[in-house]
Amino acid sequence: MSDGGARPEPVRMRLVDHVGPGDAVFLYAISAVLALCGPVMLGFALFTGADLMIVGVVFTVVFVPVGLGFWGNTVVEREQNRRLDAVGVPATAEITDLTDFESDGESSGVEVGLRVSGPGLRTFETTWRRTHHPALRVGRRLAAVVDLSGGRFRVEL
Question: Which pLDDT score is estimated for 105?
Fold first, then answer.
């Protein structure tokens, strides 16, 4: 039975970035460097008498919370990816729209309109902001995984 050309209603689903094991090691390493650079600099200043005390304190105050936050974000993304791998339903994400965007004049990219559908899933539409990629074009179908109970999905490019 045809739906008369009616568009599916927007659903609040959250896109999860794919973070594989290699990506996770890289992100954890960056987090550790950020969190440890200030304390290491402070220790070096204390034990050698170098003139790095103020810089070490500033680095500690600024970068320890940033590193810990980055670490925590990586842990959450890995958990979400494992959940999608365990209970996610295979789906198809069709690109319906491509719009260039620029935020604050510094970063630019493309906002990808997606229509996600699959067996046993209620079709939903969402947008995905990402960097430009030559493979992105209207009408292209991408593999996706959807976890309806968790309200999350991942698109494979």
Answer: 66
